[in-house]
Amino acid sequence: MLCSKKEFDERIGSILITAEEIKEKIKKAGEYISREYEGKPLLLLSILNGSFVFAADLCREVTIPCEIGFMRVSSYLNGTSSSGDVNIIMDVSQDISGYHVVIAEDIIDTGRTLSVITEKLRRRNPLSLKVVTLLDKPERREVDFKADISLFTIPDLFVAGYGLDCAEYYRNLPYIAVCNV
Ligand code: IMP
Ligand code: MG
Predict the structure, then answer these.
(1) Residue 181: its pLDDT value, please?
(2) Cα 163 to ligand 1 centroid, rounded to whole Å
(3) Which ligand gives the minimal distance to the CA of 51?
(4) Long-range Cβ pairs for the range 116-121 (8 Å, 24+)
(5) Which domains occur in the chain, in start order?
(6) Nearest ligand for residue 82 CA
(7) pTM over 0.85, yes/no
């Protein structure tokens, strides 16, 4: 559905994290992954749709051989709150039992999506499984879940940009901004 430019501008608020801040943290995360997984079969697994920008930038900071995988999950009951029912809509094509898997996620909110996904993936016996998230909203946690690497901890605000959407818009913003919802 077409959104007017006025509506588009009104719904987005102040910048919370700049493109430069994101770039700097991703560079460090890429260096860490490159050191940690040197000589190991590595699969960087992007959880679609939200992590497509993050995963694209993160994989370009990884300097060791690495495969990229994609998985699409549905977790939303309505616009802004997560349902406990997490379904795999598109599964990763690789047999993950042959890889050290690093999940790239956009944001951990209630924690439901990743706790279900990591449990499902662990049953497939990956060589190891770690989670790197761009954003973390610990105040909103409903299930106990902690990422192995979290680039930014943010307060309880609905944000958009850099892959994250608000009603499917703003994924193309190069920074993270607060959404007026
Ligand atoms: P969880 O299952 O509640 O942890 O939700 C994780 C998913 O909810 C993320 O992968 C996002 O797609 C979405 N999400 C949670 N908070 C936000 C937000 O502030 N902006 C955009 N998407 C969000
Ligand atoms: Mg997501």
Answers:
(1) 78
(2) 11
(3) 2
(4) 116/75, 116/86, 117/47, 117/71, 117/73, 117/86, 117/88, 118/145, 120/88, 121/96
(5) 20-156 (3.40.50.2020)
(6) 1
(7) yes
Task: Report the atom number in ligand 1 closest to the C-alpha of 109.
Answer: 4
Q: Is 2 in a helix, a strand, or coil?
A: coil
- 52 CB under 6 A from ligand 1? no
Atom of ligand 1 minimally distant from the CA of 47: 10
pLDDT at 2: 75
38 C-alpha to center of ligand 1: Å?
A: 31
Q: What is the pLDDT of residues 53-108, one digit of tens each?
A: 999 999 999 999 999 999 999 866 555 666 668 899 999 999 999 999 999 999 99
What sign does the dihedral 48-54-60-63 (CA atoms) show? negative
Is 106 a pocket residue for ligand 1 (Cβ < 6 Å)?
yes
153-177 confidence digits (pLDDT tens)? 999 999 999 999 999 999 999 999 9
CA 77 – ligand 2 centroid, Å: 13
Q: How far apart are CA 33 and CA 58, in angstroms?
A: 10
Active site residues: 109
